[in-house]
Design brief:
The complex is a heterotrimer. Chain B is mainly α. Chain B contains 15 helices and two strands. In chain C, 74% of the residues lie in helices and 1% in strands. A two-stranded antiparallel ribbon of chain C has the order 1-2. The chains are: A alpha/beta, B mainly alpha, C mainly alpha. Chain B: It is found in: Cell membrane.
Chain lengths: 510, 329, 325
């Protein structure tokens, strides 16, 4: 019945929005290469792909935040382009973004109508009408919120509803939903599905981005799969099953050949017991051995980075203990962690990793200044020598060692951050999404280097959302979901399907 | 793939000479030379050793504070209370004089007051996590306000004769004690900022405090020390200025915070933190001193000079940006 | 209920407590006509603090307001001395325009050249102040050089209140309308609260900041005329250092220096708090020299208090924690 309806709809209608040959390149990375996307009125198209596949980039192009380098966008068969966010909105394309971008100090109604509030006498904002309209919108999506309430008093789930209401406050023909259920509870998700159904019935085209297979199969009519910035498949949901989608998503990429590793883990280095945080993660226990690569897999927001930052002393756990070589260690600051031999290559390179503005060699020696200096005075020659030792090994590409790190490509910045930590001669290195947003060549170099480090006896923790990377590199994988350990997998049990199932909670009544 | 095939990365892209040739400091230096030449043509009294020596008093005390302020601004913070610290330290010394304190005690009181004020600012910023600009606007009123409470419209006088050496003494010929102090601190701050681990940490924190913290730097402690240093230098400036004037009024050093910040920014320190140099601040001190002195010789009143200082402050930041905009169009 | 927990309510409570303390020993201070006098005396501070509020909301700061006030005031006084026949409304229009122009200069430097606001306004503050000296040659414009109409306006009484007070009340009302009911007013909050998201919402951050500076300048210009005509004197140093008192009123009134948060009510209360202290000191026989230290202490306490109240929460991942909080 449903299938027939889809086919009927597809036959009847032409796509409202068509993207053709869209290409977008960032310095050092090709985010999208000649991808296409069709959105049909009254249908939900699911866009699936791993992190870094280019999903967010296409959303930003659709909504006028980014300009494509090549390709065309057609609305009702007419070529259009969106130089600003306002243009996309005016054309009837509206988005509910991954990060809820809203304004704490404004009211619910103002958040919904910022930029296009109804005006009354003297051009003043007609507050009464705005609140009435807001209330109507909120009721339409089943949210019982007081439109006059300041946004700061709302929890995350309700903020999401406001974001949805904002997206619907304009006469939208295309609604983009970028992981709309990521922060919602089961009941709220059900309400969202109802909303999607209603939008479909109203004839709007919906682009639905999600990592959760159960919901894709539940609400989507069509699918499009991106992998590494390329379109790898599309069609009707009725013609595809779960394993086929996973296969398309993960693929067997010719570019990604992982280093051969003979894993021979040595004695235990690190033992974490019952690590807990009031709001971010709960009861995490694991061990790590010399020469081992331990993968941490999970969806974005599963609490992996938060756990790693607590292990590195950035935040403090509420409970739990860390043992290094069987001796308990209290890690209160990053300085403590570095002292103990635990180092952390953060996911957010620009904010937490590289000190942009400082030259390469000063970045590398920052935590090792005690080694390169004498009585607190810098010795540049020592700094250059230390830097060279590690940048050569990592095959860094740069014009000179005194070049500003900000001028390097993402992959080379990452190498600088890794070099910085290796120079401290750590015992445990935590790599948080080590190859996110870097080019294929640098990726391979980072992978090879990780294998080398493990072979030398370093204990490696790798947080990654990329399934091939997790599978290709890890000896053992811990899957996290919603702040807790969902599974610990190794050997035969370690497959793309098991990873995705545990991370998304498929087969647990959902 | 072999080592031989891979080009080795050089240590430095440009030689030190090349970098010096395109530096802000050189441009500033040329400006200073130009002003010097213009002044010597404009007034016959300019090229006189004693007159030039007198001119240095225009900037030495402010520059002492500017050195510490440069470090603080590079680290991403600011202290607008420095002039008020001068007032409070001077008032404390004046009160000590009334109790019969001698010169060593006065110096101690001046330094201790400066340190205490710096510690107060530093604690509010680093312990409570408050924005330094608001905190120091507050303490700017508070510190000077305490001076007003103590002194009202009165003044402290009667500083011992030996105390006046700090503001009026000469070490050798026309070389004043203040000028020697200026040179010594310039050298010290140069070494600290550009040649020590501590200085490197300041740059790292100013460019990216989060990554600095993630690299194991004790960010809050370092910032606290910088507030402490700024307070200490303000205390030293208070000693020199009080000794030079021979009296304390609560309005002492009024408005100096702006001149100190101007000196630092003119010296090429990024007001948003992360970059700057002590040589730049030193040259900027000379530029401001020469402008003030030259215009003074031409009988231009002080307030009009402040127009030049204000234009200089905006101009030095605006011109490079205008240049970039013009080039990219 | 929500109001009782708000910063404004706490500040209002503090003001009432302050008044009660003063009234306990000096009941005359809380007599209606004296309170009206205090309000009148605080009016210039209120006017400037409103403009500063708009600027701070957009994550900027305007340190040039007092210099703007003084320069506009001097120009008004000199024009009046030179052409006593010129009607006062023309002078007021001129004050508004000149103030707006000086504010716009600040705004343009911030918007187009992206120079940090503190640098821009530190610079223009000294420049504007210096220009007063240049145009006046350091001379005072005294009472006898000003026309009677020029001096009379702020002091004229209307329904028992001086015109100065009425102007402050009208401006507060108009400003509240602007802040709460116009797209520009709401944009101040959006741009300061979340500049990144403001771009997504189609707002131009720089242009919004420009308008905030222009608004601040316009109010400073208006206050310039009122100040000079009320005190019947204009010289280089009038309102020297007043910019700090203005920032203090905003900070005490709960305007977050990080931008995007605060209310008109808060700012007016913050200004009144400072005004009451200033006027009460002589009454309670405390030297007026205490005023500076008290406002400094009040700034620090207020900013520490506000920071505690608005400490941001981290991301909540655990479902149990989300429902618990």
């Amino acid at each position: 019945m449903n299938m027939q309806a889809v086919e009927a709809a597809t036959r009847e209608s032409a796509p409202v929005l068509t993207l053709e040959g869209i290409t977008k390149t960032f310095p050092g990375v090709r985010a999208l290469s000649e991808v296409g996307l069709d959105l049909y009125p009254g249908q939900v198209t699911a866009l699936v792909g791993e992190n870094g596949a280019g999903k967010s980039t296409i959303v930003k192009i659709l909504t006028g935040i980014y300009q494509p380098d090549g390709g065309r966008i057609r609305l009702d068969g007419q070529d259009v382009h969106f130089p600003t966010a306002q243009h996309a909105t005016t054309a009837g394309i509206t988005a509910i973004h991954q990060e809820t971008v809203l304004f704490d100090e404004l009211s619910v109604a103002e958040n919904i109508f910022l930029g296009h509030a109804p005006r009354g006498r003297f051009g003043l904002i007609d507050t009464a009408r705005m609140q009435r309209d807001a209330r109507a919108l909120l009721e339409r999506i089943g949210a019982r919120l007081d439109p006059a309430l300041p946004l700061k008093e709302l929890g995350i789930a309700n903020r999401h509803l406001v974001a949805i209401a904002r997206a619907l406050s304009v006469e939208a023909r295309v609604v983009v939903m970028d992981e709309p259920t990521a922060a919602l509870s089961q009941k709220e998700i059900e309400e969202l599905y109802e909303l999607v159904e209603r939008l479909k019935a109203e004839g709007r085209a919906i682009l639905f981005i999600s990592h959760k297979f159960d919901e894709i199969f539940r609400i989507a009519d069509r699918y499009t799969v991106f992998r590494d910035g390329e379109l790898v498949g599309h069609g009707a949901m009725a013609d595809v099953d779960e394993s086929e989608l996973v296969r398309l998503m993960v693929g067997r990429s010719v570019d990604q050949i992982f280093p051969q590793r003979v894993s021979a883990p040595g004695p235990e280095v690190l033992r974490v017991e019952g690590y807990s945080h009031p709001t971010e993660f709960d009861d995490i226990s694991f061990t790590l051995r010399r020469g081992e690569i331990l993968g941490f897999y999970g969806l974005v927001g599963a609490g992996r980075s938060e756990l790693m930052q607590a292990l590195f002393g950035v935040t403090r756990p509420s409970r739990g203990a860390v043992h290094l070589d069987d001796a308990p260690h209290a890690i209160r600051t990053p300085a403590d962690a570095i002292e103990a031999g635990i180092v952390y290559v953060p996911e957010d390179r620009g904010l937490q990793g590289a000190v942009r503005g400082l030259p390469i060699f000063q970045n590398v020696t920052l935590p090792s200044l005690r080694e390169t200096s004498r009585r607190g005075f810098l010795r540049m020659a020592e700094e250059f020598a230390l830097t060279r030792r590690y940048t050569d090994r990592l095959e860094l590409r740069a014009a000179a060692l005194d070049q500003d790190v900000a001028e390097l490509s993402g992959g080379n910045q990452q190498k600088v951050v890794i070099a910085k930590w290796l120079a401290t001669k750590p015992r445990v290195i935590i790599l948080d999404e080590p190859t996110k947003g870097i080019d294929i060549g640098s990726k391979a170099a980072v992978h090879a280097f990780m294998a080398e480090l493990a072979a030398e006896g370093l204990a490696v923790i790798m947080v990654s959302s990329e399934i091939p990377e997790i599978l290709g590199m890890s000896d053992r994988v811990i899957v996290m979901r919603e702040g807790r350990m969902a599974a610990e997998l190794e050997g035969e049990a370690l497959t793309p399907e098991t990873l995705v199932r545990h991370a998304a909670g498929i087969g647990e009544g959902g | 793939m072999s080592l031989a095939e891979r080009a080795t990365i050089p240590d430095r892209l440009n030689s030190r000479l090349q970098r010096a040739a395109t530096s802000w400091e050189l441009l500033l230096f040329l400006v200073a030379v130009a002003i010097f030449i213009a002044n010597s043509f404009a007034s016959p009294y300019f090229l006189n050793a004693w007159n030039l020596s007198d001119a240095t008093f225009n900037f030495t005390e402010k520059a002492l504070i500017a050195f510490a302020m440069a470090l603080l601004i590079i680290s991403g913070e600011i202290d607008l209370s420095v002039a008020s610290i001068i007032a409070l330290a001077s008032t404390a010394m004046g009160a000590a004089v009334q109790l019969g304190a001698g010169t060593p005690v006065l110096v101690f009181v001046g330094l201790a007051t400066g340190l205490a004020c710096g510690a107060f600012n530093g604690a509010l910023v680093t312990r409570l996590g408050l924005p330094s600009i608001v905190v120091t606007i507050g303490t700017m009123s508070l510190f000077r306000g305490i001076s007003y409470i103590v002194l009202g419209d009165g003044a402290y006088r009667g500083y011992p004769a030996s105390f006046s050496y700090f503001g009026q003494g000469y070490v050798f010929w026309v070389v004043s004690f203040e000028l020697v102090l200026f040179a010594l601190f310039a050298l010290t701050y140069y070494v600290v900022l550009h040649r020590t681990n501590f200085g490197r940490a300041i740059f790292a924190i100013g460019n990216n405090p989060t990554a600095a913290l993630f690299s194991g730097l004790r960010v809050r402690r370092i910032k606290f020390v910088l507030f402490l240093l700024t307070g200490l230098m303000s205390g030293i400036a208070a000693i020199c200025l009080t000794a030079r004037l021979g009296s304390t009024r609560p309005s002492i050093g009024f408005g100096w915070e702006l001149e100190v910040v101007t000196m630092v920014v003119l010296g090429g320190v990024n007001i948003l933190g992360g970059s700057g140099s002590i040589p730049g601040v030193v040259i900027a001190a000379f530029v401001m001193g020469l402008v003030t002195f030259g215009l003074g010789l031409l009988n231009v009143p002080g307030i009009v000079m402040s127009i030049f200082i204000g234009l200089l402050l905006i101009g030095v930041i605006a011109l490079p940006r205008l240049w970039t905009i013009a080039r990219t169009r | 209920m929500a109001f009782l927990k708000s910063r404004e309510a706490i500040l209002a409570g503090a003001i009432l407590l302050l008044l009660a303390l003063i009234a306990w020993r000096f009941p005359g201070f809380v007599a209606p006509d004296n309170l009206a006098r205090v309000f009148n005396d605080t009016s210039p501070l209120i006017l400037l603090a409103l403009g500063q509020m708009a600027v701070i909301l957009t994550r900027c700061i305007d340190l040039s307001v007092a210099a703007n006030l003084a320069l506009t005031g001097m120009v008004c006084a000199m024009v009046n001395a030179a052409a006593p026949g010129l009607p006062v409304p023309v002078i007021i229009a001129m004050a508004l325009a000149l103030g707006a122009l000086m504010g716009a200069v600040n705004g343009l430097l911030v918007w187009t050249l992206a120079i940090p606001p503190i640098v821009v306004t530190l610079g223009t503050m000294t420049i504007y102040r210096g220009i007063i000296f240049v145009i006046s040659d350091g001379q005072w414009v005294n009472s006898h050089e000003m026309s009677d109409a020029f001096k009379a306006l702020p002091r004229a009484e209307l329904l028992g209140l001086p015109v100065l007070s009425w102007i402050a009340l009208v401006v507060v009302a108009l400003f509240a309308l602007l802040i709460v009911r116009t797209p520009l007013g709401r944009a101040f909050y959006a741009v300061g609260g979340n500049p990144g998201a403001a771009v997504y919402a189609g707002l131009n951050v720089g242009r919004t900041q420009f308008w905030a500076f222009t608004l601040s300048g316009t109010l400073a210009g208006l206050t310039g005329y009122l100040w000079v005509s009320r005190y019947a004197v204009a010289y280089v140093d009038i309102a020297s250092g007043f910019e700090l008192e203005v920032v203090a009123a905003c900070v005490i009134g709960g305007i977050s220096i990080a931008g995007g948060a605060g209310t008109v009510t808060g700012v007016v209360l913050g200004a009144l708090f400072l005004g009451i202290i200033k006027n009460a000191l002589p009454v309670v026989n405390v030297s007026p020299f205490y005023q500076l230290a008290i406002s400094g202490g009040a700034i620090i306490i207020a900013v520490a208090f506000n920071a505690r109240a608005s400490r941001s929460r981290g991301r909540v991942i655990l479902k149990s924690a989300e429902h618990a909080s």
